[in-house]
Amino acid sequence: MKFVDEVSIKVKAGDGGNGIVSFRREKYVARGGPDGGDGGNGGNVYIVADAELNTLVDYRFVRFYQATRGENGQGRNKTGSKGEELYLKAPVGTQITDKETGEVVGDLVRDGQAVLVAKGGFHGLGNTRFKSSINRAPRKATHGTPGEFRELRLELKVLADVGLLGLPNAGKSTFIRAVSSAKPKVADYPFTTLVPNLGVVRVDTESSFVVADIPGVIEGAAEGAGLGIRFLRHLARTRILLHIVDLLPFDESDPVKNFNGIMNELYKYSESKDISLKDKPVWLVFNKTDLLSEEEVEEKIADMLERLEWDGPVYRMSAIQKEGTRKICNDIMDYLIEHPKMREYEAETQAQSFNWPEPGAIDEVPQEVWDDLDDEWDEEGDAEGDEGLDEGPSEQEELNGEGSETDETSVDADESVEQEKDKP
Question: Region (Disordered) spans which residues (predicted)?
Answer without folding.
Answer: 367-424
